[in-house]
Amino acid sequence: MSVLSVKQLILVKGLQIFSIFFRDKLIAKKIVDKNKDFLNELIQTKKNFEMMLDDFVAEGLNIGINKLMDEILFVFNSNQLPEDFNPDPSTVKNREIKPSKCATMIVELLSNHFFLLTGATDKGTIDVFQQEVGERFFNEVVKNIKKNIISTDGAIFLICDLNYYYDFIANKLKQKQIIPLFAGLKTVGQIFLVSNKDSKELGKMICDVGKFQGIFTQEEIYEFVQRRADWSRVRKDVERVMYGLAVSDCIIM
């Protein structure tokens, strides 16, 4: 699957060649005066062609982005194993701390598609495409965390995956608008590292939304912490810190 079809890329290249010819041959040699000949049929045709191509490329990008996100979701669903973040305690000591197979597949998939448009269209279009994919990928990572059970032993492996995603976004993609999203996401892993013996400290951490770069609200962090494997043990202390009392303390008369 590619973001733009061969036909679309040919049209984009065609516009680039036409624009160069228009600038270097017609404008430079004063065959056409772009300032005076605004009613010139050639200029109007060029503008109409550009508008048509913009719409065509936008439609192609949207289809391509949807297909790419479908593929990312498929990789998450088929390769993110339950034991990735909730491993058997007896096997943790022998397990290498590195990105999961799922994370490496996701980053490879993104690498293969993020830079397809480089040299084929203008920087503005590339930026819009990369930012849109980056934001939607961020949302998929959030959903992926919320559907997994994460133990304190498995937290380090979740953090490893989140760091891997952040490194790709910050150091390879370099789209400044979405880097803060993944910086905030990176800190989410810390709420799973806290021992259940320090459940009150966990509650304080959830209340400190600034700790998460302002990306997530307290309610969103609370949704994350419910994915802890020991949630039933820490819930009462966490809710008492957050709300002043635990839900289990409430009695319906």
From TrEMBL:
Question: What's a BP term from Gene Ontology annotated to this protein?
Answer: exocytosis
Name of protein: Exocyst complex component Sec10-like alpha-helical bundle domain-containing protein
Q: Which residues form the Exocyst complex component Sec10-like alpha-helical bundle domain?
A: 15-238
Look up and give the organism this protein is from.
Eremothecium cymbalariae (strain CBS 270.75 / DBVPG 7215 / KCTC 17166 / NRRL Y-17582) (Yeast)
Sorted alphabetically, the Gene Ontology cellular component annotations on this record are: exocyst
Pfam family example for this protein?
Sec10_HB
Secretion signal span:
none
Q: What is the lineage of its organism?
A: Eukaryota, Fungi, Dikarya, Ascomycota, Saccharomycotina
- Name the InterPro entries on file: Sec10-like (IPR009976), Sec10_HB (IPR048627)
